[in-house]
Design a protein that fits this description.
The complex is a heterodimer of chains A (104) and B (435). Chain A is 34% helix and 20% strand. Chain A is built from three helices and four strands. In chain A, strands 1-2-3-4 form a four-stranded mixed β-sheet, with helices on one face. Chain A starts with a strand and ends with a helix. Chain A has one domain: Fe-S cluster assembly (FSCA) (GMP Synthetase, Chain A, domain 3). Helix content of chain B is 75%, strand content 1%. Chain B has helices at residues 12-34, 47-77, 84-106, 112-137, 144-171, 179-211, 219-242, 247-270, 279-290, 292-302, 309-349, 367-390, 393-418; strands at 356-357, 426-427. Chain B has 13 helices and two strands; from the N terminus they run αααααααααααβααβ. By secondary structure, chain B is mostly helical. In chain B, helix 3 runs antiparallel to helix 4 and helix 11 (309-349) packs parallel to helix 13 (393-418). Classes of the chains: A alpha/beta (104), B mainly alpha (435). At the A-B interface, helix 2, strand 4 and helix 3 of A face helix 2 and helix 11 of B.
Chain lengths: 104, 435
């Protein structure tokens, strides 16, 4: 998980915590799916991945992330990109994510 | 805003009708079982048993697998389904073929009606193969799971071809051996080639995914693939041309392959990050456990023990019941509630996530109904298996009642999902955002 703009980065991660992976029931930040957040001028770039390639959720999670970030930062142009490197592994789940997993 | 990549999922009208048909077929199967308690007293070549078997394997098992596979193929093969139109055509042909075949078996009309049903089914399987193979050809990365799925589709076509030839042979006898000889071939190519390989191919991808485990090596799966296909091919040639009596060897190869798949899943279970198990996964593990019964019976049947003929014919029937109403049905009952809620959720809420508070897929069906469905199913199966083994009609009837209750609860839950619509969504009021 990387952010080039600490101020806005924290807010982006906090906002993306509202996006829950529907199958797992844990938010995409604590699942470790959000790899990178950066701001270039008015453009907010987010790189995220999925738990498995070919996941049918790709469109849903990207669209949801874009919608929620666009609403939270209406003055910015939001670009969410799906990346596959590095490959996601369950080791990337945060401690909070593991706690949520135990509850679900 | 960028739209990034598009989902490969097919439209909901390609997938959901399969689940609706399969649920109704499961109810029909259970009802027919209620009126077939007298059919379990003798040989398995009985009109009512043939009807039950084909409603189970085609209307229930194959139908739900087709539907789920159209959703899952893009996940496993990482590409779009080749043709949604072909998928719909396949659905129509499979549905019509199943109804006609069930009717012709129940009333044992072996003429034109059965020929038409067999042709419809064979055409359905052929078009299904075109769709699967064309989808697989465009897969960016070939995996062992793809091998399993494509091979299973080809075995389904072989099963359908043997079935078609047998249907024709009823009225225009041309096959050199008696009918039961080919029935054994037809049944085992279907059970091992179609159902077992397909279940392994999809299960090897989905079950670790649901458990949040990423098994790093797939050697066990490669060996499972080679052993099961090797055992099946050897069995077919031996059965058709040699009758060498090496059945136990072929059963051992298939059993060994299946055991390797179970070991692969056990590796995934050990490495899983997700410790809690929902009802759908519990039922899936029950199904995998139930797989031990038909495998053990297969060893018993082929090991040439001198069992009394009456007991042996009961064991044959128990074997069939344990495959179709045991392993396969248990798996469908569990996996339906791992796949269908997610599919329905995706179509209902895809455009609302990130703007409104949305429920989770598990909130779209009744867990209570699912719990009771599993209880009645297991009770029904235990009674049915015991009743068939002991030739006790009261126990068979009790088992059929258990199945009927399970099928009604299953269908109620499935239709609750299918009819679900997003409504009264509340917008997010998160943090200090200007929501």
């Amino acid at each position: 998980m990387e952010t080039q703009t600490p101020d806005i980065g924290r807010e982006v991660f906090a906002t993306l915590k509202y996006i829950i992976d529907p199958e797992i029931g844990v938010n995409i930040v604590d699942l470790g799916l959000v790899y990178k957040v950066s701001l270039e001028g008015d453009q907010l770039n987010v790189e995220l991945t999925l738990t498995t390639p070919g996941c049918p959720m790709s469109n849903t999670i990207i669209m949801a992330s874009e919608q929620i970030l666009h609403k939270r930062f209406p003055s910015l142009d939001v670009k969410v990109e799906l990346v596959w490197s590095p490959v996601w592994t369950p080791d990337m789940i945060s401690e909070e994510g593991l706690r949520q997993l135990e509850k679900n | 805003m960028s739209t990034a990549t598009l989902s490969n999922s097919p439209g909901k009208w390609v997938v959901l009708p399969h689940y609706a048909f399969a649920a109704l077929a499961f109810v029909a199967l259970s009802m027919l079982l209620l009126f077939s308690t007298d059919a379990f007293g003798g040989h398995y070549f009985h009109p009512k048993l043939l009807t039950l078997t084909h409603v189970a394997v085609l209307g229930w098992g194959t139908m739900v697998i087709f539907g789920a596979l159209y959703q899952l193929l893009p996940v496993v093969l990482e590409g779009r389904l080749y043709s949604e139109r072909l998928a719909l055509l396949t659905f129509g042909l499979l549905g019509a073929g199943t109804i006609l075949l069930a009717f012709s078996f129940w009333y044992f009309q072996v003429g034109g009606l059965m020929h038409a049903a067999a042709c419809l089914l064979f055409t359905s399987f052929l078009l299904f193969n075109v769709n699967v193979i064309q989808t697989a050809r465009k897969a960016p990365k070939w995996t062992i799971e793809a091998d399993f799925i494509v091979s299973s589709a080809i075995w389904l076509l072989v099963t359908g071809l043997v079935g078609l030839l047998m249907a024709l042979n009823f009225t225009i006898p041309f096959l050199p051996e008696e009918h039961v000889h080919y029935l054994q071939l037809h049944a085992h190519v279907g059970m091992v080639g179609w159902f077992l390989l397909l279940i392994i191919g999809v299960g090897a991808k989905l079950i670790p995914m649901f458990l949040l485990a990423h098994p790093k090596e797939s050697r066990k799966l490669h060996w499972a693939y080679n052993l099961i296909n090797g055992g099946l091919v050897l069995f077919i040639f031996d059965h058709l041309f040699f009758n060498s009596g090496l059945l136990l060897l072929y059963v051992s190869l298939i059993g060994g392959g299946t055991a390797l798949f179970l070991l692969y899943l056990d590796d995934a279970r050990s490495a899983r990050q997700r410790q809690s198990t929902d009802l759908g996964m519990k039922q899936t593990f029950v199904a995998l456990g139930l797989l031990a019964l038909p495998l053990a019976l297969l060893f018993l049947i082929t090991s040439r023990l001198e069992l009394p003929q009456a007991l042996l014919s009961s064991v044959y029937l128990v074997y069939g019941v344990s495959v179709f109403l045991g392993f396969i049905s248990a798996l469908i009952l569990g996996q339906t509630f791992k796949t269908l809620p997610f599919i329905v959720w995706m179509h209902a809420y895809e455009n609302h996530v990130g703007r409104f508070k949305t429920p989770l897929p598990k909130d779209l069906y009744s867990e209570q109904l699912l719990r009771w469905q599993n209880v009645f199913y297991l009770l029904g199966l235990a009674l049915l298996l015991t009743g068939v083994l002991l030739k006790a009609q009261v126990l068979i009837l009790s088992g059929a009642i258990g199945f009927t209750l399970a099928s009604l609860l299953y269908t109620a839950n499935v239709f609750q999902l299918l009819l679900h619509k997003a409504q009264n969504l509340q917008p997010f009021t998160y943090g200090n955002a200007n929501a």
